[in-house]
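ok trying again, last paste got cut off:
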Amino acid sequence: MQHFTLRIQRYDPEKETVFFEEHNVPWTEDFTVLDALNHIKDKTGASLAYRWACRMGICGSCGAIVNGKPILMCSTFCRDLKQPIRIRPLANFPVIKDLVVDTDDAMNKFREAMPYTKIQKQHIAPTEETLQTPAQLRKLKYASQCIKCMLCYSACPVYGLNKDFVGPAAGAVAERYNKDSRDEIKDKRMDSMTGDNGVYKCSYIGECSQVCPKSVDPAAALQKLKVAGIFHTAKSIAKSASAAISSKRKS
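nice, full thing came through this time. structure:
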């Protein structure tokens, strides 16, 4: 009988030990990696820990390193993978148990991107519309597809070395709101994104865009923010110089 072989990295937090388990799963044409893990848990009663929710590539919960690449397990078919299928937790994050990692630090980076418009922040009444043209929507649509799966942070070598780096997904979110025609807080957002641990830490390796399951291209978003940051800084310097001259004249 044909079968898939899965070699799964496990972590026991009580004993602080890392070990590997190998499981055979009956070969099925439409089995995803997530389906295989669910089969193992259902049929063997294994205490394997992993996250999943929608099974449709929308929630971003089931990220893992499969055969050396960060992927969503629910949208990766076992039939397309080299055997044995090697599964490890996402890199660059503390492991809680088995394939479950702590992504709180990366999630907190989104606050630095200020992911809202001034209108949203003021809690505008739902009866009032804030319209956009199709052309205005196209400017931000590519960056708005992020599902917070954290694959880009797992693939990012800069974040792996420096956890203070704002990171690729937060950069993509910042670019999305900078391009929003209803936004009025771009200057504050750029202050945050061009700080000591902001977008200029990115070395443009591009791994984040390679692994993004929604084709958001966070690497390109970070480069656009770098260019915007130059103009933002020049504008801030000119504004400060003008204020100093004005103050000197009054005195």
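cool. The two ends are 90 Å apart (CA to CA). The longest helix spans residues 218-250.
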